[in-house]
Amino acid sequence: MNIPLETLPHRHVLTLPSMGSAVRIARETTEQVLAEWGIARRHPTVDPALLILSELVTNSIQHAADVSPMITVIYAAGADTFAFGVHDRHPYQPALFSAVTGLGGSGLGMVMELTLNLGGTAVVRGDADGRGKSIWITLPL
């Protein structure tokens, strides 16, 4: 799946403090945004997307809160694509594809396994100043 995100017509941005309640708020916002965009809650991609999103937000809170008091979730969608990115201001960029083969069943490994099983893609995009990153997930609908 190699769809330029800027071509997706639907967009929403959510900025939250890096605290535990951000996970719940991000999930609820995702459900609301998808409903507004006409993507049914029962669509087979929605539950895995919510799980992936929850894990990425949790990771940002756990690993980046010291240097990133806020996280941002960016949503985009089109007729056959749902994409979302979780951004924080921590410079560490995880190796996504090595997480799939990692031992111990890491959360990032689960994110990658779900994403790939759905036919989606994942990418880490560093900020221009090198002091933050976004992890983007793109899933087919």
Description:
Strands 1-2-3-5-4 form a five-stranded antiparallel sheet, with helices on one face. The protein contains four helices and five strands. The protein has 141 residues and is of the alpha+beta class. The model has no long low-confidence stretch (mean pLDDT 92). The longest helix is centred in the middle third of the chain and has 19 residues. The chain has one domain: Heat Shock Protein 90 (2-Layer Sandwich). Keywords: ATP-binding, Kinase, Nucleotide-binding, Serine/threonine-protein kinase, Transferase. GO terms for molecular function: ATP binding. Pfam families: HATPase_c (PF02518). This is ATP-binding protein.
What's the number of extended β-strand segments?
Answer: 5
The rounded Rg comes to 14 Å
Total number of helical segments? 4
Could you spell the SSE succession in H and E letters? Answer: EHHEEHHEE
Q: What share of the residues lie within helices? A: 25-40%
Beta-strand fraction estimate: 25-35%
